[in-house]
Amino acid sequence: MLISRKGSSAAYIPGSRLNPRDKRMNTMTAFSVNGKQVNLDVDPSTPLLWVIRDHLGLTGTKYGCGMAQCGACTVHIDGEAVRSCVAPVSRAAGKAVTTIEGLSSDLSHPLQRAWLEEDVPQCGYCQSGQLMSAAVLLRQKPQPTDEDIDQAMTGNICRCGTYPRIRRAIHRAAGMVVKAGVR
Amino acid sequence: MNHGSLKLERPRTVGMPRRDFLKFSVAASGGLLIGFYFPGVSGTASAQASANEFMPNAFVRIGTDEQVTVIVNHSEMGQGVYTSLPMLLAEELDADWSKVGFESAPVDPKYNHPVFGMQMTGGSSSVWSGMEQFRQAGAAARAMLIAAAAQRWSIEPIYCRTEAGAVFDNSDGKLTYGQLAADAAKLPPPAKVQLKDPKNFKLIGKPIKRLDTGVKSNGSAVFGLDVKLPGMLTAVVARPPIFGAKVKSFDDSRARSMPGVRKIAQVPSGVAVVADTFWQAKVARDTLRVEWDEGAMHNFSTTQLMQQFRERAKSPGVSVRKEGDAPAALASAAKTIQAVYEAPYLSHLMMEPLNCVVDLRSDSCEVWTGSQFQTIDRANAAKTAGLPNEKVQLHTTFLGGGFGRRANPQSDFVVEAVAVAKAVGAPTKVKVVWTREDDMQGGWYRPAFLHAIEGGIDASGNAVSWRSRSVGQSIMAGTPFEGMMQGKPYDPASVEGLDDLPYAIPNLAVESHQVDVNVPVQWLRSVGHSHTAFAAECFMDELAALAQKDPCQFRRDLLQKQPRYLGVLDLAAQKSGWGQPLPKGMGRGIAVHFAFGSYVAHVAEVSVTDGNIKVHRMVCAVDCGQYVNPGIIASQIEGGAIFGASAALFQELTFENGRLQQTNFNTFPVMRMNECPEIETYIVESEEKSGGIGEPGVPCAAPAIANALFAVTGKRIRRLPIRLTEAV
């Protein structure tokens, strides 16, 4: 898959805040996204988030803060949770990026099944990032404790307040006994 | 509009033309019909459409493929209306729930809120106001499907029954709704329908799983920010750093030649930079040098403002409520106490920053956005575009949080996007994106408030007097919503929760000072209750301490004629183990409040270690009358508690030299996973009329936490956000 955008090959303007140290023109950046190879003609300092959303059209990954404060933009690079809003696309070069669209094709990931069981989302905007952070946690710690969940999920803000259900869903996904719900 | 795709989803409905299917009008379901005046908006004061606008009921479509699509006239912003409202319709339709889907309604008078007379979502009103509307729509559809089956079988409709998406006769006859859809479409609508006896409900009252969880768990739900049109440009706007400031001049020499930049133009709200992609627009905007005419607010400081509020509270305000003689009773009371409570400006801080997509053509316009105010937003878009209303379509996407911000009387984020599109020139497709900083600094906050309260008790410890003075900005004065003030010299949204203080205190005076400040303010989740409950319920605790009574019992004594307040108070107390010992260093606090038709009580358990506050547990009891989906109610109560606790513990907007000091989550924090307490929700079984649920969970959080901190530290919290160093 070759994606190039017309209009994006104009000369880089020295002194712009795009990346003051980077005097290069756009370059081709190659990596894989959800198992598909992409090769993009894009300024290498563009945050991965906006490449994923605007260039690749995968809008499941969300913008929330632009400074790695909220976690809505969390994706995986070679299996590691990364805040894509502050990661330049160059960081993905030659690597494997996974977005929410690649977590499963059919909501079959244990976390997605648990999310459905616990009816986790409210507005839903932060949930892609929550799921991507939780997926790394579960891979690293298949039976996470509450403290593990605190540590892994504290970088992901939910303004609607779905934290209690996220916690339950992660435990459920881990196959642990879920405490009785409300009422 | 269709909101995303779910891989497991069945094909979308194809079949009969929706508008021909049901032909009846849903009458306004009684209650208060409030007229708003919006220039350029016609017919908003009435739920009745004019003759040429009359449309058949358009709340449901049934396809020959058995799909039941419920068209929802309220916006989905987390509160679950894409499930609870379809449940109401599906209940009366006897639909097969596994075949039920949802779609957001277009803008049309027939989708107006039956009480507020315009298409909108707010006031925790979607379910109670839609109760009759959606049930009637489902029942009417069912009656027509039965009539179609009866015709097919040549029997009287009375011999037909329905279950799970099919009509049955007395023997082995069965016709599914899909098989009957085409015939039913040719039939006249029933003049009158019988609604189910609640004891026969199969869906209502059950914790049915949400219909939108799948699309919100695989990234396919389409929020405003996700809308992408072919050839669409993206714009970022440089807005004034001070409210009321205007562009004096700007230098765009660097931005103009940056990659992808297509247009830089001054618009009424600032300077717009339009580029191929967001990042190009954002980076180019950051190179603009804008000189601002700073205007009158250049010295504005919230420190000074609160000082003015304190001075103002020393003089009597406009009387809101008066019973007995509060000043005399204060003078003769055995003991008195006074306290001043302060709450800051707050940002809604939806996870999805504001955005709006506009497809502007010479003779028409389409808008995609997460709107809570469809009627107003479309009208304001039309006015800005110079087009008649009917030439403008507004598509409601999923809202990545609303909390009131997307219900802006001026449609600020919609009007601006149309203005940007005009600056680019029709035909054009452009998306305006607000960065987090733009969103937080863009105004329309929860107003800062001060409540000065004095109270007195007699020698036996009975509360005998209460006088409160509230000082703050009106949300409604000077806006099209001024009609909601009903000619009163105060804004009900400033004193709600105080004007209906439920305690049996014989001498009561509630006063209001309305202060004009040029900071744009707006309703934020639970509106006035978000600060009045903090003041009222903390002061009740102070009075209880003055009377040397248990705070829960003190309230109980004064609520003997308020059974629903008492019900939630007792339930929360009982479930929390109120009165039972806690480990050393921990304390409990209680609060009870009524808002938006529902009663809520919280008990918070907190500890303080090395000056750090930890909220361990929040026990919440709610009486929202008859309820539709207890699972969603629990979500809203949990979320409300967290929303309220976030504000109580962390959040404050401050201004210096007219400039907002907060910009992002690092300076305006939200509660995080590691800070989140265990939350338990208990719902009171009730036959009373349904109340709201999106907002009532918020108000009690701050006072319950503050009162628990008193139990731990012996010091009172009188200002939000809570700072132990300020406790007295």
Please explain how this structure is put together.
The complex is a heterodimer of chains A (183) and B (728). With 183 residues, chain A is α/β, with parallel strands linked by helices. Chain A contains 5 helices and 6 strands; from the N terminus they run E-E-E-H-E-E-E-H-H-H-H. Chain A has a 6-stranded mixed sheet with strand order 1-3-2-6-4-5, sandwiched between helices. In chain A, helix 2 crosses helix 5 (163-173) and helix 3 (127-140) packs across helix 4 (146-153). Residues 1-24 and 176-183 of chain A have low confidence and may be disordered. Chain B is of the alpha+beta class and 728 residues long. Mean pLDDT of chain B is 92; it is low at 5-56. Chains A and B meet through helix 1, helix 2, helix 3, helix 4 and helix 5 of A and helix 6, helix 16 and strand 26 of B.
CATH superfamily of the largest domain in chain B: Aldehyde oxidase/xanthine dehydrogenase, molybdopterin binding domain
> What structural class should be given to the helix and strand makeup of chain A?
alpha/beta
Taken as a percent bin, the fraction of beta residues of chain B is 15-25%
Tally the helices of chain A: 5
> Please, what is the average pLDDT of chain A?
86
Say what oligomer this is: heterodimer
Keywords:
A: alpha/beta; Ubiquitin-like (UB roll); DNA polymerase, domain 1; 2 domains; six-stranded mixed β-sheet; 5 helices; disordered N terminus; B: Aldehyde Oxidoreductase, domain 4; Aldehyde Oxidoreductase, domain 4; seven-stranded mixed β-sheet; 27% helix
